[in-house]
Amino acid sequence: MRFDRCKKLFSNFKDLEKLKVLICGVGGVGGYALDCLYRSGIKDITIIDFDTFDITNQNRQIGSEFIGEKKVNVLKKLYPNIKAIDMKLTPTNIEKIDFSKYDIVIDAIDDLETKIALIKKAYPKIISSMGAAKRVDPTKIRVDSIWKTQTDPFAKKVRDKLKKENFKKDFKVVFSTEKPIKCDMGSFVGVTGAFGFTLCSEVLKKFI
Fold this sequence. Notes:
Layout: H1 4-9, H2 13-16, E1 20-24, H3 30-39, E2 44-49, H4 71-78, E3 83-86, H5 91-94, E4 104-107, H6 112-122, E5 126-129, E6 141-145, H7 153-164, E7 172-176, H8 189-206
Parallel strand pairs: 1-2, 1-4, 2-3, 4-5, 5-7
Antiparallel strand pairs: 6-7
């Protein structure tokens, strides 16, 4: 059977099957979180993204061979039965989303203002990805409180912005202690994919 080996590993597999997960952003990180959750037997997955696949995505994104097609449309074909929302997330429309229907919200977006709005609205169901680009060592990936992140410049921006908005609540993030390489738009699937898998693992561990 398809999920036999998952059932042997997760004693509460039937409960995991019932999880409702929302993934915000299905690029180099979120796409692998989707793949991991789907292959682990999570049946109720919703994805939100607005972008189309470009040739520059092909070094790291699942489905990126379909250049010019909407990411959510391609991924819905590759992962039957998921729910797909074609929408550009903004601080304004995040306020209109009903997060109460989800057990967990994965934040895999990279726009700072939108990420902050998502964290504040989806808390305490949020688990967030920090900076995965410009790194080559997946062994430096860590999971910790947003307030305990280190080395990651993007995580510092998130912390500073949350402090400025007087948000002091705690939530987990995936980040890297590897110092970013100085380059323009560099990314490596060995790290971005590992970020996505780590997000998936944290979701499963949270409900085991």
